[in-house]
Amino acid sequence: MAHGLPAIMRMTSGVQESAPPSGPAPRPPTGGRPGRRWLVAGAIALGLGLLAIPVAPRLLSWLRPAAPTGLLSASGRIEGRITTLTPKSGAWAVALHIDEGDPVRQGQLLATLDDRAQRERVRAAEEQVNALARKLVAANGQLGMTERQATLQTEQAAAAQRQAAAGLARTRADLAQTERDAQRAAILVAKELIAPQEGEHARLKVEVAANAVKEAEEGLVSSEKNLALARVGLQQVEILRAERDALARQRAQAEAQLAEQRSHVADFSIRSPIDGRVLTRTVERGERVEAGTPLFTLVDLDRLYVKIYVPEPSIGKVALGQEARVYVDAYPGRAFPARVSRVAGEAEFTPKNVETKEERVKLVFAVEVSLRENPDGVLKPGMPADAVIRWQPDAPWR
Length: 398
Description:
By secondary structure, the chain is α+β, with helices and mostly antiparallel strands. It is 49% helix and 22% strand.
């Protein structure tokens, strides 16, 4: 006989039919009436189940306690501000001074990397600075000597040029005077007031004065050339000064590079920038680490927060700075003071780690509730927590 509801219906209908007129009456099948009872019970249970589907959520909501007025509660996990330490250069890890879970203080040495190559770069930079310093000393000496020499030559040439100009002026004045004397002598000779020899003497003086003027003019030209040459020496001084200044700039650049290389030596000593605790350590002694490779992740236990997701209809109640409290299962009944420190500006779908698909398709806003304190470091990242925000200032805490 086939199983299932049709078979039961057939069996039931066969039981309800009357027996044929001939032959002994057939015995009813064993279990006929219990099968009918199971059929009725299954139908009732199926009907109640179908009716309970739309009623169950409302019934559960009636059974839940109502949220206190003025408070908004949500669950999340405690998170922290993570600091990742990475080296600036590739090197070998020669010493590790802490392990995962250890507390650290700001400035504490966590690891030491091999810095021999970097110290070689520092030595090369120092040699470059010293070489440029020696060149700069020599350039300064040459510049000073050339400047003094050129200045003295220029002063002497200028004085000679002034003397030549003055001598030319005197000879020209003498020439003019002798020419006038010769003219007067010629008149007196013509009038026979003086002897002709005196007239000849006057003309000879004119010739002598003219030759003196010519020599003075040549001397002035020569002195002007000497002055120009001396001034060329001053131009050479300017060239040497420019070269000296270029060397000074090169030395300053080399000193800056030396300071930079020296600062990189400190990069091979990995130190903690914060007070916190070591979450992870991804390096072992003797390993080669490259630039940018994470070595340690640190968390500041004094700057923890709970990240929750508030449904879109309730986000209008949440504002920055609102008072809040955080509860964790490890310390039941203990409230940790907090405040709302961040409210997302855009809605998003509930993250995938929410349990049900129905909840994941809802629009929510991410909210961060920062803990005001973490006494004795009892709260740690990753702990499940409940955050209660008091969005009405006068609402009593639950």
